[in-house]
Amino acid sequence: MRESAAAVTHRDEGNAVTASTPGTTDRPGIRSTSTRQPGIDGSGCRRRAGEVRQRGGDFPRRRDLEQTATDVIVIGSGATGATIAYVLAHNGIRVTCIDLDVRGAGVTGSAFGWISTTHTGIGSELHRDAIADFHALDADLGGALSISWAGSLTWFQAPEHTESHVRMQQGLGLSTEAVDATGFGRLEPSLRRRPEIAAYAPQEGVVAPGRMRRTLLAAARDHGAQVVEAPVSEIAVGIDGGAQAFSDAGVFNARYVVLANELGAPRLAAQVGTVLEVESSPAIRYTFRATAPLSRRVLSGPDYEIRPWHRGTYLGAADYVTSEGPHRPATRIHRALDAIHRDFSLRNPLQLLDFRVGFRPMPTAGRPYLGALLTAPQVLVACMHAGISLAPAAARRVLHHITGTAELASI
Question: With respect to CATH, is domain 67-145+207-277+364-403 assigned 3.20.20.140?
């Protein structure tokens, strides 16, 4: 999984952060909270987002727009919204970014932070470009995202499934390779119980999600973007070709509105006549400490998914089904920790620091929603999983659409 839930009290890129809402105690000394599942509005026929019809190059540095198309409202300040706001502002477009909480709630505040194309199985240009666009974005920011490009190792229960995954990734033009147990040991010597075969993706990396969105929002402000903290209740389009966003902070007018507010996008899209079929997918993210060094990079196997975090701590991620009951997350976490303890042949127990269950937006068609609404071309949608990985590639396409360099497909 790419974007799971955030820790209650965790080291957020070096700073201690504690959730303001008290949690329930599952074990002594361990607290957990759950993010309430947002409602999904809308019904009727499905409209699917396509891919960008024309691929652009690197981020254009600046383009002048007609006066009627200079203002853009970005709803949502998570990884996707913050990236879009920055890329537009960086290219001379006047941007207003509006969100209920611009200080870090939502999916991004609880993401695992794996920059990856693993498990996508989609083969779209958006996914193929994800890593290259992340490099370009970080270069624009002078390396401020502090990305670790250490790669990843992925394996499945059945070796033939891992082999199939390697072939699929290679078919997408990615530099994924199969490594045996010996090769795995050279990459991850601390793991004693190694799979027969694993997929090594040296091009993949990890980013601290909280730092990413804060850096992008600050950079967007530096380029003139306005960031407003307020709930958006309604959007509308006019016969003059403009769009409006109604919020507690007032009514905002623009040439375009970009819906980058994840699970909130279907409700607003329905107001202008388009149904977005998006499900919320619950997941767990947990933080734990080990007395001995563990992984150097992302390890994604059938029993756990972990990566280095901060000063001897590690992040873990796991999917979760809410029907399994309120105590199931703790059970899943401890099962994963037991498997980690076993595979690394550790002498001392692992210390679970915190965990939380959160919700991710999952378009039911399996492809991201990235495009302009047929019912309201002034409204663009960027709703996708995994948002961390795809945000820079999506932002570049939104920029090209608004500047007339290339068109997004219709939804």
Answer: no
